[in-house]
Automatic annotation (TrEMBL):
One MF term in the entry's GO annotations: methyltransferase activity
InterPro entries: FkbM_mtfrase, SAM-dependent_MTases_sf
Protein name as catalogued: Methyltransferase FkbM family
Key words of the record: Methyltransferase, Transferase
């Protein structure tokens, strides 16, 4: 919902100019709400260039969304978040000045974030996995490998046909975020079983490379690190030793699905998706009806590991990276 700008703005000495400014602002907001996520910064730039819009009006608009709280306005790129939230019905609930966390809600689901809100927007603004809705016609179980802060797990669990979500997250920092976000949703929490476990092609010790000041970007794959991380990110990166569990062994410990249920695998593991799929295939556990994956080191390479599946959706981000939706051939 667009805030009531007319009731909150400070009147201009020139009533006609002020009214036109408000109209320009509202039109810019409506354009942003109708746009896709990527053009939002362009909309914001256009809005700021409109000389007729008084700064006080724009500030009132921002304050209206955050219910009078000024602290969120200091978050970097908060206007990018603000327009994405308005466009997609994400509502502000509260802000904790001690933890610097916002609590937000959409469609009855609550979730917390800080300045690193980009994964949240992928799930609840862009709805990265929205194509799943057209593919599930009966109860299903999700295996969320690369759970991060739990946003995808909550998005999946909110679907009425979702019976259970098993979430796997290697890095303890986003895993704790996931626990906190799950706790914000007592009606969805019983569906979600989280594990602070990293999955791979074998049981092993690995070196995790991560950014402390991020929303959980981390990898155990040197090839991913070399391909995607800028020199600046590499300088700021940190490392820790972690234990990786063989994916097929981890899946073998989970309860079986019920008769007639769909099995859905979601993979977003910064390059480890290849060895995970290879291990599941060797163990004859690659028995999912639907696979939602982000291939980071080449789509053709990833698809070659999945005979018997057909691609129903592909979104390419670069020569190496693509999101893909696959369904098992009947």
């Amino acid at each position: 919902m667009i805030p009531d700008l007319h009731s909150r703005a400070t009147p201009s000495p020139n009533a006609a100019t002020s009214q036109q400014a408000l109209s320009d602002l509202e039109q810019a907001v409506r354009r942003a709400m109708a746009a896709q996520l990527q053009p939002l910064r362009n909309e914001l730039t256009e809005l700021r260039r409109t000389a007729a819009i008084p700064g006080v009006v724009y500030q009132a608009f921002r304050m209206a969304y955050f219910r009078g709280r000024t602290e969120p306005l200091t978050i970097p790129n908060i206007d990018y978040f603000l327009f994405a939230a308005l466009m997609n019905g994400i509502q502000f609930v509260s802000y904790d000045a001690t933890t610097k966390r916002m609590v937000l809600t959409k469609d009855g689901v609550r979730f917390a974030t800080d300045a690193y809100f980009y994964v949240l927007l992928e799930l609840f603004a862009q709805e990265e996995y929205r194509s799943l809705r057209a593919l599930v016609d009966r109860p299903f179980v999700i295996y969320d490998v690369g759970m991060n802060r739990g946003y995808a797990a909550l998005w999946f669990a909110s679907h009425p046909a979702c019976r259970a979500v098993y979430g796997f997250e290697l890095f303890d920092v986003p895993y704790q975020w996931a626990l906190d976000n799950i706790a914000l949703n007592p009606t969805l929490a019983p569906k979600i079983t989280p594990f602070c476990i990293g999955l791979g092609g074998e049981n092993k010790t690995a070196e995790l490379i991560y950014e402390e000041a991020s929303d959980g970007v981390s990898t155990i794959m040197p090839e991913f690190y070399a391909s995607y991380w800028t020199p600046e990110r590499k300088r700021q990166s940190q490392k820790k030793t972690v234990q990786i569990k063989k994916a097929s062994d981890a899946f073998a410990t989970l309860p079986p699905t019920q008769t007639g249920e769909l099995r859905v695998l979601k993979l977003d593991v910064e390059g480890a998706e290849y060895e995970i799929v290879e291990d599941l295939a060797r163990a004859k556990r690659l028995n999912f009806d639907i696979i939602l994956a982000e291939a980071h080191l080449g789509l053709d390479r990833f698809l070659s590991l999945l005979p018997g599946y057909r691609c129903v959706e592909t979104v390419r981000h670069s020569d190496l990276m693509a999101n893909v939706v696959l369904v098992r051939d009947a």
